[in-house]
Design brief:
Largest sheet: 7 strands, mixed
Distance between the termini: 41 Å
Structural class: alpha+beta
Mean pLDDT: 76
Number of helices: 7
Helix content: 10-25%
Order of helices and strands: EEEEHEEHEHHEEHEHEHEE
Strand content: 25-35%
């Protein structure tokens, strides 16, 4: 589409008892191609050139979003008519499909991983053979979120090493280590990362294992993501890779919540 404008949509979970917004979800969804519905850019009022932020309860002010306005009656107001096409597109977006990875997915997975590496520096050091890197030893399974011939996200499970398992007082055959989790920049803020993580944890449970993961202790956003998802912190340890500062990575180890 041409001439399309993107607007951020902040979805707010209502408090069942009061009907008032309780807190925003961890993920912020956005809608593109609004012009496809309206034929021209929707008029959301005078914003001084700034992108307005829209909640399910109404339009909030300023680039920072702020607190949603509430109706005088205490009931959440209806979203302004100009925003309804955008909300309709958002609600119509299908949930991403997650399926087992096939061998012929690997080239597209490597391409997606390169985009993540360029933007986020993950992995810290680009592997000589990215397809092999995506297929580590003791692989239990891998899953992807495809979009046509492209891959939007990826996650894998491996059996951890005996030293890793001993450090958390668990037999290695009882564990499944989550890794190679990434989502392409264009597919973020859609809940895909959470869906991939949940899918991997459930796959581990289906095999009678507990999902665990390790994350760079300095990766604040990732640590926050896992903790908000309910993963339980176990301990800090030394990771099996070299961090960007040239030293062995310090990692935080987490255990999946009970399903």
């Amino acid at each position: 589409m041409t001439g399309a404008q993107s607007y951020e949509i902040r979805r707010i979970r209502p408090d069942i008892s009061t009907g008032a917004p309780a807190r925003t979800y961890d993920e912020v969804f956005y809608v593109a191609e609004v012009d496809r519905v309206r034929g021209s850019r929707p008029d959301l009022g005078q914003t001084g050139g700034r992108r307005p932020r829209v909640s399910e309860w109404g339009v909030t002010r300023g680039p920072g979003g702020g607190r949603p306005r509430r109706a005088r009656t205490g009931r959440p107001p209806t979203a302004p008519a100009a925003t309804r096409p955008a909300l309709a597109i958002l609600n119509a977006m299908p949930a991403p499909q997650i399926r087992p990875r096939h061998p012929d997915d690997l080239p597209a997975c490597a391409k997606a991983l390169f985009g993540v590496h360029e933007k986020d520096g993950y992995p810290v050091h680009w592997p000589t053979d990215p397809e092999h890197w995506l297929t580590p030893d003791h692989l239990l399974g891998a899953w992807v979120a495809p979009d046509g011939d492209s891959i939007l996200g990826h996650v894998a499970l491996t059996q951890p090493t005996a030293p890793f398992a001993a450090a958390i007082n668990q037999p290695a055959p009882n564990l499944a280590l989550v890794g190679r989790l990434f989502v392409t920049p264009d597919a973020r803020r859609t809940g895909l990362a959470s869906a991939l993580l949940s899918h991997a944890a459930q796959a581990a449970r289906d095999e009678g294992r507990q999902a665990v993961l390790e994350v760079d202790a300095n990766a604040t956003a990732a640590v926050t993501f896992y903790e908000r998802a309910g993963w339980h912190f176990l301990r800090t340890d030394t990771g099996g890779w070299i961090a960007a500062d040239g030293l062995p990575a310090r990692v935080r180890i987490y255990l999946a919540p009970e399903g």
